[in-house]
Amino acid sequence: MSKRDNIYASQGSKPGPFRFDDQVVAVFPDMINRSVPGYALIVPMIGQIARRYVQPGSVVHDLGSSLGAVSLAIQGGLSGRSDLGSTRIIATDNSPAMVNRFTELLATRARADHKAVPLQPVLGDIRDVDFSGASMVVLNFTLQFLALDERDTLLRRIADGLLPGGVLVLAEKICFEDEAVQRDQTNWHHDYKRMQGYSDMEIAGKRAALEEVLLTESEATHVARMEAAGFRRVTRWFQCFAFCAWLAEK
Ligand code: GEK
Question: How far apart are CA 115 and CA 117, in angstroms?
Fold first, then answer.
């Protein structure tokens, strides 16, 4: 079980920039569940989506896989489908601490299900992934960590590589153009974190650490980018406060 996240209870008001290091990995499941309203619903729903859209003999990419929650949900969602042949899941993350821990976790589950679709954790940058032969690509709260000027290229490469009928699942924290709406949304998110047991000091510390690391964009910007990349239809299937998920179909 993951330890409780109290990283910002002790770092004061001027923490360094947020990093996916050993300290974060040790508390990651607790941190993401208590910070992202809806995370515990979004992950299994991605498994459900996989069951419908993953194609036989194709590749599924979990980009910015962290400890593999999405990959495992997809593996579960695909269980019992007898038509998948050589289909496999590739989970890519550029944090050695995350990939090492996920590999350890997988080893403890080994041989649980011989028929499960193979799942491979890879230490790598999502900008270098080859998307050819993919039927499903997932960016579950990962695109927000990529530089703004690199996002169009990644989305275009994903759309180009996907098989016909392939899908992208994108989940992001978004921002709002209207100042009053943005203020309310921030308050609601901070209320959520308080209700999850974070103190005001912890909320302020994490916010400062993420300031130049997690760069949000509006829903309009995300949808326009997916459409420009070549997706024919984009559907929002989840929103809780500023946390949204879309399905983009090629
Ligand atoms: C989940 N999807 O549990 N290349 C590879 N990995 C990256 C890159 C990059 N350029 N940039 C960031 N990451 C997961 C949660 S967490 C979201 C995703 C969060 C990785 C980074 O190391 C981290 O593991 C992940 O993306 C973002 O469903 O912590 O808010």
Answer: 7
